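Materials and Methods. Structural model of Rrf2 family transcriptional regulator. The 159-residue sequence of Rrf2 family transcriptional regulator from Rhodococcus opacus was retrieved and submitted for structure prediction as follows.
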Amino acid sequence: MDRVVAMKLSGGVEWALHCCVVLSQAESPVPTARLAELHGVSKTYLAKHLQSLARAGLVHPTEGRDGGYVLTRAPEAITVLDVVQAVDGTEPAFRCTEIRRQGVLAAPPEQCRSACGIAKVMAGAEQAWRASLSGVTIADLGATIDLAGLKHILATPTT
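The predicted structure was written out as tokens:
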């Protein structure tokens, strides 16, 4: 039986991706409260992730009575990797601590001039994972949902 191992992402990544899909269909800025209501999530927690998206230049906040968030680029130009990095950062998932140089099994320095097999495998997996995420855009994600229904909901005033 094959085991599936996944990179660990925060829940904020899911929230941010859903918000980006909604914003890709909005004809005007969408307030944080509306995005939170649409997804049934905490406005305060969602605001933190929207701020991360804004710092990364993926969304832009607008102020005023009709303020909210808009995408800064076309949905075809924003990748899932862009959102993951905006919310969770760019640090690698695996950090080699060179354990092979420690303890009674310590390898001699001449055997540690290049990355060990474990570090190479992990780096390759991360590279493949990032390549996969960079190949999917917000527009691609939007193609998987009922956009007509979403546009109708966005056009419906909040109570």
